[in-house]
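Review form for a predicted model. The reviewer records the input and the model, then writes brief findings.
Reviewer: anonymous (R2)
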Amino acid sequence: MAEEAEVEMETSAGAVPVPFQLQLDKSIPFQINIAEWNPEKDLLAMVTEDSKVVLHRFNWQRLWMISPGKCITSLCWRPDGKVIALGLEDGSILLHDVENGKLLKSIKSHSVAVICLNWEEEAHISKGEIDSAFVYEDRTRRFFPPAPRVPRMPGLNAGDAGFMDDLEDTFHELSTSPRQHFNMLSSGDKDGCICFSIFGIFPIGKINIHKLSLCAPFLDKTAAFQLLNASIHQLALSKDLSQLVVLSFGELTENLVKPKGKNVLKDEEYAEVQKFSLSGESLVGLHCLLLNTSIFLDRKKELHQVAQQASSIEDLIEVVRASLSVMSKQWSEAMHSFHEKFDPLSSLIVSHGLDSNPQDEFLSVLFGARTSPPLHQFLVNSLGEAGLKRVCKAVDTAGKELHSIIHEHLQPALEIIVFRIAELRGLSRWRARYHIIGLNEELIDCATEKAGMLLVHVERFLRILATVLYQFQNFFNWVLRYIKILMSEPIDQIQPANSELIVVFLKFLLDHDPIGELLEVNKIIVVDVDTMQRVEQLVMFGGYSDTKYLEKTLSDEFNQLEQCLKEAFLLQFTTISQKIDCEDLMPLYKVGYTPEVSSSDAPTSIFYYKGDHNATSEVHTDGDSRVDYICFKVPDESLELTNCIGIIRGFANGLDPVQKRVTSPEAILLCIPDAFQCVDLSLYKENQIVLLLNEATSTLKSTMRSLIMMVQISDYCFLPLSQGTPANLWTLQILKASAVEMHLEIGKVRYISEPVTSPLAVSASRGLACIFTSRKHAMVYILDEDEDETSDID
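Model under review:
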C-alpha cells in the first residue's frame, strides 16, 4: 500500500519528523479531473474522467454521485458551501444542492465550454457597521403565501420532462434571503467571454475580452491594446467585489483606433484594428488582466434589491409558462376525445346521401322532427351511452384541471409577479440610485401594464371556461336523454336540458373551440364593434393604453409581458456590462503554440491575503485590505530557464482612483530543482504555497516518487517590477536574471512513493490537501501541524 511504503521509506531515512499528517489513503476506481474542497465543511467534490460528480466526506464516505450527461469543464462552491456550480462543455452552468445533489438551477450564459468559475461574496460587515447596514426587506411574504410551484403534467414524476423539483422553492429561500450576503458568480469560457450572475441565478453582466479596449498603466503606454483569440484560464473576484483578476491566453495586439465608448469597441471599430508585433516577436501567451468591477461594490444594495425581485419574477414566469402549456395540452386532449366521437356523424350523413350537416341534424331533432337514419345510427350504434359518458368525463376532468391550475398556479404566480413588478416600479422612480444600474422607469411601467392586463385575461378566461363547460354539460345531458329515448329506456334520472343553450352550443361550440383559441399563439380573437368602442372610451380613465387587448389570446398577452420584462432586464444587463472595463494589463509569458493547448497544461492559482505585513514598501495596504497573489507554472519554452514558478503580488493594489499606477507590483521567479517537475500548485493561507512535484530523474515509472511541499513565500525577497517596454514586454523576461533557486530544505516536504497527477485540492479554511496518484489512489493530508483533528460535516 502507498501509505506503508511511504512511512517505511521516510522512517529509514531517520532524519527530521515527517510533516503533514497522512489522514487517509484510499484506492479509487476512476481518474479525477477536477477536485475542490467545500469552503465551510470537510467535503470534497470531485469530477471523474467520465464527467460524474462525486461528493465525499473527510472520512471518504460517499454522500452522492450525479451525472449531468455532458462533459464537465469546471467546478466551484458557493461561499457558504450549500450549493455547488458546474460548468459544462456546452456553455451551461448547473447549480446543485450539497445535501443530495439535486439540480436546483440551470443557466445558459455561454455558448462554448465554461473553463473557470469563481463564486465570491461581499466581505462580512463589522459590528460597528451593523446599525447602519442596509437591510432590504422583501415585503412579498407579508401579503402572499409561498410562491406556487411549476405544475406537472398528470402522470409525470418530479424531474420528468424538465419540470423542476420541489427543492426549487428551498433553493430560492437560500439564494434570495434578504439577510444573505451579496454574492457574485463569475464564469469564463474558452472564447474569452466572462459572465456575472448575482446569487448565481440572475445574470447581470457579460464582457468579451476580444472587444475590450485594454488599458495598460503597467506598460506605461497611452495606446489601447486588444487580446485576440483569448481563452479565459482563471478568474478571481476581490473580496469587496470591486476588482476581477483574469488570467487569459491570447495574442496581444495594439489597437490604433481609439474606441468611441469608454471601453468597448464598436463592430466597425473592431474591424479596423491593425495587428502588428510590438516587440518584433509573437505576443501569444498568458496575460494577466485587472478588470474594474466597482459597480458591484458601489451599487451592491441596489443590485441586491433588483436581483431579489427580478430573479423571483423570472422563476414565476416559468410557472406561468408551464401552466399555460399544461392547460393547452389538457384541453387539447379533451377536445380530441370529443371530436373523435362526434366527427363520424358527418361521414354518416354523406354516406346516406343527405345534404345537411351535424348542426342541422341535431337542430331538427331539437325542434321535434323525426330522427334521420344517419343520426339514429350515430347515436345508437356509433356513439352510444358509454361513449357519450367517456367524452363527458374527459371534458369535465379537463375543465376541473384547468380550474385547478389557474387557481393554484397561474393566478397566484401572476399576482406575485404584479406585486414584484410594482416594487421594481417604485425603485425605478428613485433615479439617482437606480438609473445608474439600468432600471428604467418606462420599461418597468410597460411591464406593469402588461402584467395587469394578463390578470384581466385570466379572469376573462375563467368566465369563458365556466360558460363553455356549462354549455357542454347541458348538451351532453340532452344527447344522453335522447339516446335513452331512442333505446326506450327511462329518463327520470336525467335533468331536462335548456333548449336555448343547445341552440347556442350547436351554433358556436360544436365546430369552434373558444378555450383552445385563447391558449393559442398569434391568434386574433374576433370582438364586436360595440365592445371595442366601449373599451376605447374607458382609456380616458387611465390604467391602461392597449385598446386591442380583447383581440389577444391569453398566450399572446403572456408573451408580450415576457418580452417587456426581457427588455427591462436586458437594459440592466447591458448597462452593468458597459461599466466593467480594464484597469491594467500585464503580459506574463509567451508560448509557442495555440492558447487552447497551453491552457490545458498551465497550473495557476490566485489568492487574496489579508493584512500582508511581509510585503515591501512598494505595496501599501491598510489593515483591512487584501493583497492579491498570482502564482503560475512557467512553460519551459517561454524562458531559457526551465522548471520555473512565477509569483506576482500587488498587481491589483497599485492603482490610484484615476487608474494610474503609483506603485509597482512585486514578483519572484522560483526555479524548482532539476530532479523534480511541478505537477500542480495552490496558494495557501498565511503567504504559503503548496506544490505537488514528481520526480523527473527516474526512467522506470514504477520507481518514481513524488512529494508535496509547502513553501513560505515571505522567506523570499520579492523584486518590484519595472514598467515593460516594447523591447522587453514579458514580465518574466524582466525577472529571468534574478531567478531564485528553490531548495527543498527550506520548506515542509513529504515524500510519496508513487507518481502523482493533477489536480491538487487544497482547503485553506480547513487545513487539508487531497492529492491523486497515477495508480488511482487518493491521499488526504492535514497541512497544519497544530491541528490534531478535523471536524466532520454537521
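Findings: The longest helix spans residues 373-428.
Further findings: The chain has 17 helices and 30 strands.
Recommendation: see findings above.
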